[in-house]
Amino acid sequence: MRYLPHTEEDVAAMLERIGVSSVEDLFAGIPESCRSLRSMDLPRPLSEWDLIARMESMAASISGGASHSVFLGAGSYSHYIPALIPQLLGRSEFTTAYTPYQPEVSQGTLQAIFEYQTLTARLLGMDVANASMYDGASALAEALLMAIRLGKGRRKVALSSAIHPHYRQVVATYFSPTEFEVIELPYDPETGVTDLSTLADIGDLAAIALQSPNFFGCIEDLQRAADLAHGEKALLVACFSEPLAFGLIKNPGIQGADIVCGEGQSLGIPQSFGGPGLGMFACRMAHVRNLPGRVVGQTKDMDGKRGFVLTLSTREQHIRREKATSNICSNQGLCATASAMYMACLGATGFRKLAALNRDKAAYLKKRLETAGFTPLFKSPVFNEFCLKAPEGFSKIRKKLMEKGMVAGLGLGEFYPELEGTFLFCATETASAASMDRLADAIREEI
Amino acid sequence: MRYLPHTEEDVAAMLERIGVSSVEDLFAGIPESCRSLRSMDLPRPLSEWDLIARMESMAASISGGASHSVFLGAGSYSHYIPALIPQLLGRSEFTTAYTPYQPEVSQGTLQAIFEYQTLTARLLGMDVANASMYDGASALAEALLMAIRLGKGRRKVALSSAIHPHYRQVVATYFSPTEFEVIELPYDPETGVTDLSTLADIGDLAAIALQSPNFFGCIEDLQRAADLAHGEKALLVACFSEPLAFGLIKNPGIQGADIVCGEGQSLGIPQSFGGPGLGMFACRMAHVRNLPGRVVGQTKDMDGKRGFVLTLSTREQHIRREKATSNICSNQGLCATASAMYMACLGATGFRKLAALNRDKAAYLKKRLETAGFTPLFKSPVFNEFCLKAPEGFSKIRKKLMEKGMVAGLGLGEFYPELEGTFLFCATETASAASMDRLADAIREEI
Amino acid sequence: FKESLLWEKGKKGRMAFSMPLSDVPSAEELPCAMAGDGPDFPDLSELEVVRHYTRLSQWNYGVDSGMYPLGSCTMKYNPKIHEKLAALPGFATAHPLLPESLSQGALGLMFELQEMLKAITGLDAASLQPAAGAHGELCGMMLFDAFFKARGEKRTKIIIPDTAHGTNPASAALCGMKPLPLRSGPDGILHAEDVAALMDENTAGIMITNPNTLGLFETNFAAIAAIVHEKGGLVYCDGANMNAVMGYVDMKRMGVDVVHFNLHKTFSTPHGGGGPGAGPVCVTRELEPFLPVPRVVKRGEGYVLETDFPESIGRLHAFYGNFGVLLKAWAYIRSLGGDLKRVSELAVLNANYIRESLKDDYDLAYEGICMHECVFSDKGLKAFGVTTLDVAKRLIDLGFHPPTVYFPLVVSGSMMVEPTETESVEELDRFIEAMKRIRKEAESEPETLLQSPSRTFVRRLDETGAARNPCLCGGM
Amino acid sequence: FKESLLWEKGKKGRMAFSMPLSDVPSAEELPCAMAGDGPDFPDLSELEVVRHYTRLSQWNYGVDSGMYPLGSCTMKYNPKIHEKLAALPGFATAHPLLPESLSQGALGLMFELQEMLKAITGLDAASLQPAAGAHGELCGMMLFDAFFKARGEKRTKIIIPDTAHGTNPASAALCGMKPLPLRSGPDGILHAEDVAALMDENTAGIMITNPNTLGLFETNFAAIAAIVHEKGGLVYCDGANMNAVMGYVDMKRMGVDVVHFNLHKTFSTPHGGGGPGAGPVCVTRELEPFLPVPRVVKRGEGYVLETDFPESIGRLHAFYGNFGVLLKAWAYIRSLGGDLKRVSELAVLNANYIRESLKDDYDLAYEGICMHECVFSDKGLKAFGVTTLDVAKRLIDLGFHPPTVYFPLVVSGSMMVEPTETESVEELDRFIEAMKRIRKEAESEPETLLQSPSRTFVRRLDETGAARNPCLCGGM
């Protein structure tokens, strides 16, 4: 076995040094009550070549974004990833290192994460970001728990129902074992943005949470939400699933959000069937001691040279144990590094241009679909996603298109029963005008 | 343009420092008589994404070895390449370095090449190998020129006609501008190995050259050739196109060859439509000052620490100019490193096992094709290639099979008119029994 | 060589991204109130980006650089082929909301991985959703909570030994459970009577790391589990140290109700400088109804995502967990099959070889055979004014990553060495030699240790200052 | 950290290769006389191989590590996307003897590259077969030979200036031509009258590097070419320095009969520590019949390999040259298109910026505007006992690869600096600053220079000893 270097002679010599006569003797301490009675029921080992053949055929059976005909967003976005990112990220000094507990041999990881934190804070308009969370959904749950810690006794949080349904489900899971309550805020069926009119009646609120652009693709007025929240002495938690939007729209920080979190997959991370992604998380400096997860800080070495370390570990579980700000240990470090590389590749100039291109593509797709009989559902401006009401008989057509490898939007009825028959579409820079024409034409033909 | 860092301000500031007013001024020295009168007729720049799409479609149009149904060898062999080789070889410290003129910052390349030289010498049974040549064909040409240099006035070299026809053509090209003569030795139509009976009549021979396994796949008796050559005071140049054979058969060195050269593509290098490959070249220590190409040697640094440098440069063109042992400057350094990685991956144990597996696969294919009406052409033992006489009507069948992506051997008639209707087949470890059965069955069905 | 921070480089107008030409008209302008200025990022050329990260990588140490005996982290060799497989376009570009008919390859892989994890533990059901080990622990505690809720109970305490992993108490606390500390015995393992003294009907159960963080197998596990079960409690096994016992133990027979894996440890997906990992859980039949949704289920010849499990704790991840990590674990398990038992055997052999070879130079925390890691203390070094930290830093100068230090807390100045099975005996010998040399230096030239590391890009860093005046965001 | 040689590692029986299981019966044994023992290679585990090469790579410096101003080598940024493209399975696994119907993608790419090279030079035909620059030169000399042979002539001499590339004389010698040295003028360029004095009917022609190795454009090129042509000779242009003049010159108007490219220089395929490169040639209509076979030709909508050119010099490579390198050059040219002219402009701008910034610290070999590289001498340093070599080694300690040194021979102690267009002005400024610092150190602390480099894995090496007692093969 090429991963195991031991020859029989090696094993014999080592056993002799240890003073036992067989490898099994090393396991003699495992009592019968714990022992496995039969060998593990696993398939036979595959050679590297059979493994490749097997996985290639599995991978080939999946209809990838490479065909440019999957018009789905909803928390996972098809964006071009410069070839240099996987190539640099794949350098084994990055991939095969552990959490940088020993800073002297981990400055590469540490500086890369410090830079990630900085770029993230700039992107979101916040003071400080952590080194990453698992994904956008768990980041939102952690943000709300953080708001509760900061809320000094307040027991409720209010979530916009225009937040990604999966994110709200994860929040519910995290809150279920606790004594805290989650309240949903309705969306305005005309504009597609959160209806904040009921907010004042709730009381005892530690935080309210909105997503912008929201699940419907609509851009929320976070400033107004922040004002209302602050009026209630609650925090505004702003979340997102498409950070590229901040190339064009005002960032949440500038609009008064207290905690900003969301999913960073769009920033140079492959879609990979939903994971690994990147939970981004940022807050105001005033709240930093309540920030969950790891953070990297700048410091100096014995000679006064700039260096970086994991810091504020007094918030963390190995010091604070049950009083830690979260239980997170492994995070999405390599994905955070990938996203920093991506932000560095684009720069301010590129980020803005690419964001504009995304918005243009979505506008084009929307227009084309309207010619095919779709009608707009909401009035608010959007970024690269939007909701449309489908023409009669579309569900059948949609299935037919699937057989041709075209995925025509996401049905909203599953998440919002009142929106049965409406669909969420997405078009990014990877959608060519030709592919969008093809979709619209195919639908028009069938109707 | 992402490769060009200059902003307009940069350019302006630099021009000012230089003291000219425009970039064009820097080219003012180019006289009208040399100037291009119109802009270059090149296609418009492609974005990274359009480039990928274009090249993917070109690549996809090529019927690759991945289908395992290309039963061709003849100087280019389908072998599995461990994933670690491209990954390590692709480390930019290896790929983006130049020839190691500055040894203090090039120890990685230098040690890797020193190791390549050593493993190559061991594989071929020789004392010393150079840092690589362009390919097997040019290595053979250079070997014969070296033999002429050593031959002190002898003006002829004799080549077995069972050497790869392309290699012989390259030798002819190299010899054409010189005053030296190339003579061909016939092959024995029964055994498929070189007929050495005419050798003694030639006279004035600096070298004779044989390939083993030869172009027909047959294993030559190099020892006998060496004895005969040495009897004529000529050198034996042994060449090869499939070095994996030396896992099973006697290496050329042990059989008395003076210079050994050939193609190393089999050793971990992608087939890549024939290049880049690897010209391997080794000789006896006595002849080292006549060795063409670069060599790396071991030495010590100022502190007595082991280190490596390019050495024996007094043979080379930048010192010796027209008296150099060859004009070679850039070689196939990275391919040499790849092959060293490959030899290191296999080790003695693996190399031998894999060689045996290749021979077994070829034997199986041969047997299966015999059941489909083919008959053996030559009697000599083979490694992973062999020649068969095809049954009536096979040419048409072969075309049909091609449409199914199966390439059923290489027609020999193009290279040896007398062998019209015979074919050279190859099966390596990448050919599954199932794919060979499929081929044989398909042929049998059509006949 | 010094490498600036990203925003100390670049010039406005550069770009390292190939901007596609637009083939559509421009959309109408955003309303002013919504429009922002875009982020304040540096503009860089492609070469600037490439050099920046190439240089940063050169300041890092990974498993490919050398032995990384970081206890409790299982820093084994990460097969290179896995990176290639994870990058296959079908996997890398798969949208998670693809209709099931277009994503069978992904669902099938997940289903098979679930089956294989069940086979390795002996348990009845699995969920792949947790994105890391601590996420798996959290999932486990949520399962506990849901289990008791379904019985109309709310248990508010949980027993956590001093030899458990550091994240355990925080995971329990997130589910509103208060940890009851349990001391290990003088032999480094847990004793049934101590558990019996703590366990009651308000206690949800116990979280045991086995082998524990001292590298010792909890031989009383089954008895402890019986006590917990008798009081209606549940047993959680932290499986971070699974690399020691594959093929040797049956979690179900041991009495485990929930166990999590660290795929990035046991199944060799790379750690990536801190993630992404994956922390699947396996559970008994009794806890299966509570597993997170969606679950991957086989229907006829195909696979579907099933959400209709009314007792489920709900969704734990936006989609299905770290699929890209899962597929590497699938590849690893399929590459080894039953040889996983050999993996554990050699991991334990390597650890005992180190234990035996260094026991005269460093004080063992506990005598006798260990499992996949062994723990030393700095007791014998204190006389020379040298601590565990100094040994760790000196090892860096000798070309090794240090062991885990000052953990577990139960051993003072602990050094937790986990060599893993992929290290050869020659490499172990080199490590042993370095450790012996440091032991000698501690006596003869302690200053060398105190001043180390000296060969790294930076020397010892001021961590106190970093925490006191945090600078977490640059260039403001 | 020290890394052993391969054969100082490993143990009999290890293997870092996944040996496929056999699905066929064993062949009969080889006859005894033929059977050997197999090579004496070390047996290693996969991790041993990975660590070995990871460590070796860490001792190397590449363009991605920092500025690499090696004159005459055009060490520009190598786009990362090219590596991915070359690895596409269709390209990487293509057998060169595939029937044409199954290899149109490869043939089409080669045809298009030929067309683009023609467009860049203005010449009439191209061959992609030469595997490196010197192979291209050799091809050129063979074309000369064949051309004269076809006219019943055998010319035995060739004019080679002192500012030509080092390989030129050896290439000519291989074709039986004796180089006639031609001195450049006091202004560093060639003069028509000097050529006229040498050129006769026994002289095949001239090999000119333009821009020459002093970084100067040969302004008398057209006049020189006319003289050579008048005597029936041919003009070879060594195109290694093409990066300076793309879009500015027309090789045909200049009077060039053959020019070669170094794809690994001008078109940015990586140099790989010494290869593989590619050295295509472009020729005039008159020389086209002599180009190597096979040639890639368009037939209708498809492409074929044509061998029927009776005057051809024959085959120069076992197959079609370094296809894997060619495709990277194709990708580079397609990525830039007409912007190649901008490439040359910025390459020349960068070189002049360095020339102007350092001319007060180091002696310029020749004054005035240069093309893509500039040449300094160590004249002003000698007073301090410091040489070009010391400057080069000291640059290493300051984080830069040294320039080309002691070449061209025509300048004593020459330092040939070619920054290339992919270096930013900030990086140039850092290089200039380092060079200025060294100049100061030469005066104030020459010992620092003489002892450098001090920060590398090895210090200055004994090259004389290496040549005197060559050890070219290890472990015997």
From TrEMBL, chains A, B:
Instruction: Provide the top EC class.
Output: oxidoreductase
Some GO term, biological process aspect, for this entry: which one?
A: glycine decarboxylation via glycine cleavage system
Question: Per its record, how is this protein called by name?
Answer: Probable glycine dehydrogenase (decarboxylating) subunit 1
Instruction: Give all residue intervals belonging to the Glycine cleavage system P-protein N-terminal domain.
Output: 1-440
Subunit structure of this chain's protein? The glycine cleavage system is composed of four proteins: P, T, L and H. In this organism, the P 'protein' is a heterodimer of two subunits.
- Assigned protein family: Belongs to the GcvP family. N-terminal subunit subfamily.
Q: Which domain of life is it from?
A: Bacteria
Q: Which reaction does it catalyse?
A: N(6)-[(R)-lipoyl]-L-lysyl-[glycine-cleavage complex H protein] + glycine + H(+) = N(6)-[(R)-S(8)-aminomethyldihydrolipoyl]-L-lysyl-[glycine-cleavage complex H protein] + CO2
Q: Where are the transmembrane segments?
A: none
